[in-house]
Design goal:
Helix content is 29%, strand content 27%. The protein has 494 residues and is α/β, with parallel strands linked by helices. Among the domains are: 2-69 and 108-181 and 272-345, FAD/NAD(P)-binding domain, CATH 3.50.50.60; 414-490, no CATH class. Helix 1 packs parallel to helix 8 (300-319) and helix 8 (300-319) runs antiparallel to helix 9. The radius of gyration is 24 Å and the shape is globular.
Length: 494
């Protein structure tokens, strides 16, 4: 019976992935409980970057403006030789991208988490319970029962679905017996986070210094911070590199004494791993519980937030009785290729930076400088793969791609005007009415301020209509009638 459940969705882990999933799931009509073992937000910096697509997801839950207020932006991401020649330059990080936000946003994770948690008050369907330590779960054909330790007692919660968004060491993943594919990247680095007192004395762009003597990263952070990362050499221990004098000597060439105060120093191991299964029965994994990404491409947090956007609307359709649980089989199918691409990019960047043999580094520098001089350097925008297999209308142009977010002349964003849910744009007059699928002919009042941009997009693709999923991936293009009917079939509406 419905009243035997404490919630529709139980999320273990109250970090950015878990809270974003909770907010999105509540938008989709689910009753959600988020259980977090810590009493409050971890106060020190961790993730440093989110991209424009993730900012769009934050926009959808009303947190984007608050997050932007604490973010910083840079025009370049440069890979440099030891003597500061440019090996690679990725430009345009501060430009507004096709989805209405800057392409790269340097963040302060505690500020991001606070902005997300502040939105919980606007979503009565979500209950965040801090200080709840996950102990384990049992599953039967109709529900999950999870146990939590709280104040010396054990409490149980019954839910239709359980998502482990509980980090790299995920007890939920372990309890489900899911193992990782290890992609063979394991590098120890010293991370030094600082509070900035004088920005004029710090680099204004993100830097990867490919110095074989000590590969180094130097990047902007949000909310008055800056970060350095130094590769730990073989034979060095964590105690060696965390020594105050050692850190001071590493920072000395940057000439920042007095311009910063060290907030934290810690040794991390940068890993690349992907869980073999992201769903097992009523248990799903998201974020670092499902995949771990080296930081060089800035996609660690981004991947978890994308997981949340993919899962929430599918769970919503199931709980509303509009689809069968089989649609969750498309979660890993759709997300894993994207995750492996971002991990691959991060590993490529890391392997470029982490060369410590002087001869090999010199050869790398020679080849990359020659390529850059010849105009053959792989600079430019970083792109990720579209969905090619999953809940899309396969074979139609642009299916699985990411739909842009247009801004009208007043600066209003398309998503804010239309709201959540799926959209069918274009020549829709003959389209079959479908429960929950909103049709937007280009001459309707709500779309009219964006009609020229939408019409141009359709003309460019040579199609009459486009159906956009709730996570803003394109279901398909073509005839509105065929798209509406295909949506019924592919989403397994009962």
């Amino acid at each position: 019976m419905a009243d035997s459940f404490d919630c529709d969705l139980l999320i273990v882990g109250g970090g950015p992935t878990g809270v974003t999933l909770g907010l999105l799931a509540a938008q989709n009509g689910l009753k959600v409980i988020i259980c977090e073992k810590e009493a409050d937000i971890y106060p020190l910096p961790r993730a440093a970057h989110v991209d424009h697509e993730v900012m769009r997801i934050f926009q959808s839950v009303g947190a984007a403006e608050a997050i932007m207020a604490t973010s910083r932006h840079t025009a370049y991401n440069d890979f440099l030789t030891a003597d500061r020649q440019i090996l690679l330059r990725f430009e345009g990080s501060n430009r507004i991208g096709a989805v209405g936000w800057p392409a790269a946003n340097m963040i302060h994770q505690p500020s991001v988490e606070r902005a997300l948690r502040d939105r919980l008050a606007e979503y009565p369907g979500v209950d965040l319970r801090s200080g709840w330590q996950f102990e384990g779960f049992t599953e039967d054909s109709s529900c999950i029962t999870a146990d939590f330790a709280i104040n010396g007692d054990v409490r149980s919660l019954r839910s239709k679905w359980l998502v482990g968004a509980d980090g790299a060491r995920s007890p939920v993943r372990e309890g489900a017996g899911i193992i990782f594919d290890d992609l063979n990247f394991d590098e120890p680095w010293l991370v030094v986070d600082t509070i900035v007192h004088d920005y004029s004395r710090l680099p204004q762009v993100n830097l990867q210094v490919c110095d074989p003597e000590r590969p180094t990263t130097c990047v902007l952070m949000g909310n008055g911070r800056h970060r350095w990362e130094f590769m730990v050499k073989p034979g060095e221990t964590a105690a060696d590199v965390l020594d105050d004098q050692f850190v001071e000597e590493l920072l000395e060439p940057w000439n920042v004494a007095g311009a910063i105060t060290i907030e934290r120093k810690v040794v991390y191991r940068f890993n690349a791993k992907v869980a073999q299964a992201w769903r097992k029965g009523r248990v799903l994994l998201a974020g670092d519980a499902a995949h771990q990404t080296p930081p060089f491409a800035g996609q660690g947090m981004c991947a978890g937030i994308r997981d949340a956007a993919n899962l929430a609307w599918k769970l919503g359709r199931i709980v509303r009785g509009q689809a069968t649980p089989d649609i969750l089989d498309t979660y890993q199918t759709e997300r894993e290729p994207h995750v492996r691409a971002t991990i691959g990019m991060a590993m490529m960047m890391g392997q470029t930076v982490c060369i410590t043999d002087p001869a090999a580094a010199a050869e790398r520098d020679r080849a990359m400088l020659e390529a850059r001089a010849a105009g053959q350097s792989p600079d430019g925008d970083v792109t990720w793969p579209a969905i090619t297999n999953g809940m899309i209308f396969s074979g139609s142009p642009e299916a699985g791609g990411y739909f842009p977010q247009f801004l009208n002349e007043e600066g209003a964003r398309l998503d804010d005007i239309l709201g959540e849910g799926e959209w069918l744009f274009g020549d829709t007059k003959d389209a079959v009415p479908t429960d929950g699928l909103r049709h937007f002919p280009l001459d309707c009042d709500i779309v009219r301020p964006f009609a020229k941009m939408l019409s141009d997009w359709l003309d460019e693709k040579g199609v009459r209509a486009v159906l956009v999923r709730p996570d803003r991936h394109i279901f398909g293009t073509g005839s509105a009638t065929i798209l509406a009917m295909a949506w019924v079939v592919e989403t397994k509406i009962l």
